[in-house]
Amino acid sequence: MQTSFSPRQLAEPDMAASEAQIRKCVHCGFCTATCPTYVLLGDELDSPRGRIYLMKEMLEKEQAPTAEVVKHIDRCLSCLSCMTTCPSDVNYMHLVDHARAYVQERYRRPLRERMLRALLAGVLPHPGRFRLALALARLAKPAQPLFQRAPSLRPLAAMLALAPRRATAPPSSATAAVPARKGRIALLQGCAEPVLRPEIREATVRLLNRASYEVVFAKGEVCCGSLVHHMGRKDDGLDAARTNVDSWTREIEGEGLDFIAIATSGCGTTIKDYGFMLRDDPAYAAKAARVSSLAKDISEVLSAIDMPHAAAPRPMTVAYNAPCSLQHGQRAGDGPKRLLSEAGFVVRIPEEAHLCCGSAGVYNILQPDIAARIGERKVERLDRLNAEVIATGNIGCAMQIGLRTGTPVVHTVELLDWATGGPPPKALA
Ligand code: SF4
Ligand code: SF4
After folding, report:
1. What is the Cα–Cα distance from 138 to 146, expressed in whole angstroms?
2. Measured from the CB, is residue 25 less than 6 Å from ligand 2?
3. Most exposed: 63, 108, 232, 366, by fewest CB within 10 Å?
4. 193 with 267, same domain?
5. How far is the centre of ligand 2, averaged over its atoms, from the C-alpha of 276 (Å)?
């Protein structure tokens, strides 16, 4: 696509990076067919190509974002399916992240939206606050159908629907002593996952310990920053990235790390991007690049190390849902499917496996109607497989799918832990 950014604009690193991506787009439109919002809404402006055009106009002309442009950018799930499809290798993720930061700086949202976004940014990245918010949500849960009827209250209804009915205890931080240690792995502690499904972290630790890897939780680590970063809160995202880079660098320079393992693929995509996010910060660029190079999804770690012998407790059929952040954001390939098959599970893949489930961080709260339609479409395809269990690699997907199906939904590591001698996943108990 032709651009006409001025030399002054191109002296600004984020603008120069976006211009480079916009120029790569040849307007072929291949990406439209794999974009969930275009597939659902059929509007060119809700397609990657249409959004790239809107972002180009906004950035190049330094326009104040209009409500119409913000609407179409907000509707993007950041699922990155378009990046997998694009033959020109357009890095849509960096482009939309920049556009969102631009919108956040220059657009005044209606009060209700500002309050909702401030609430999400202030609560979700902090496990203590999130736990308290879920306790309140449980009390308000009976009002959910009432909120659902009022369009302006649907985000609240979506939050209440996602709140689990029962409180969970924090995950155990115990890791087993590993006599013949093969290596040392820092496991991302996460923010929402340990509050919603603590059993995922416990299964991951057992699995890595069983493979003779020491697991450590780095001191000072915070939420990966993904949630605020994708809401356009650039400085908050960078603060989180710097804190985590410092925290893992202490471990790397101390006893050393083989991997930084991440069991929530949405977080993994962002941590793998820390090197890009901090590229212009002389104090952090090199450290961030090193952290990003060690960051691996748990399925990548398990594929790279000697997995303990696995045998599925019974020949169970598993519908595998590949999170977008794993298949498109990290291009992690078929690792999870292969690991499950090698462990003896019968793995089935749904139609339209490349399309998002509609979770997308806090998208299912900010855009509840579109997220619900995308979620129902996904679950309809998963349910068609008649599997005994659905496995996925991201807590957001597990919650979004679990809300709409009667089939138990677990994390892939819970099945692998079970197959290598751990307890059955709680959702199957
Ligand atoms: S990230 Fe997903 S929703 Fe957004 S434009 Fe790309 S394919 Fe469409
Ligand atoms: S597939 Fe890539 S090059 Fe083609 S329109 Fe989409 S973003 Fe542009």
Report:
1. 15
2. yes
3. 108
4. yes
5. 22
Q: How far is the CA of 275 from the centre of ligand 1 (A)?
A: 23
Residue appearing with tokens 């999400």? 120
Neighbour count for residue 145 (Cβ, 10 Å): 11
Token pair for 366: 């900010």
CB-based contact 349:320 (threshold 8 Å):
yes
Q: Is residue 345 part of a domain?
A: yes
Minimal CA–CA distance to 396: which of 368, 354, 358? 358
Listing DSSP states for 186-206 in one string gives EEP--SSHHHH-HHHHHHHHH
Q: Which residues' Cβ are closer than 6 Å to ligand 1?
A: 35-37, 48, 51, 76-82, 92
Kindly state whether residues 139 and 211 are assigned to the same domain.
no
For the CA of 1, the closest atom of ligand 2 is 8
Distance 267 CA to ligand 2 centre (A): 26
User: Closest residue (by CA) to atom 5 of ligand 1?
Assistant: 48
**Best mutation site among 79, 81, 82 for ligand 2 pocket (most ligand atoms within 8 Å of CB):** 82
The answer on 293 and 316 residing in a single domain is: no
Choosing from 274, 303, 332, the residue where a domain stops is 303
Per the CB < 8 A criterion, the answer to whether 196 and 132 are in contact is no
Q: What is the CATH number of the domain that holds 324?
A: 3.40.50.1860
Mark whether 334 and 379 lie in a shared domain. Answer: yes
- The verdict on 97 and 44 lying in the same domain is yes
Tell me the CA–centroid distance for residue 388 and ligand 1, in Å. Answer: 31
52, two tokens: 């790239």
Which residue's entry shows tokens 């806090």?
A: 362
Residues 341 and 287 both lie in one domain = no
What integer pLDDT is reported at residue 152 of this predicted model? 86
Same structural domain, 188 and 292 = yes
Rounded average pLDDT per 10-residue block, the chain, 429 residues: 95 97 97 97 98 97 96 98 98 98 97 96 96 93 89 88 84 73 95 94 96 96 96 97 98 98 97 98 98 98 92 92 97 94 97 96 95 98 98 97 97 97 93
What's the pLDDT score for residue 174? 67
Residue 61, domain extent: 7-106
| CATH, residue 37 | 1.10.1060.10
DSSP-derived secondary structure letter, 141: G
Cα(381) to ligand 2 centroid in Å equals: 27
Cα 42–384–75 angle (5° rounding)? 30
Ordered alpha helix ranges (H), 87-167? 92-106, 111-123, 127-140, 144-149, 154-162
In a domain, 94, yes or no: yes
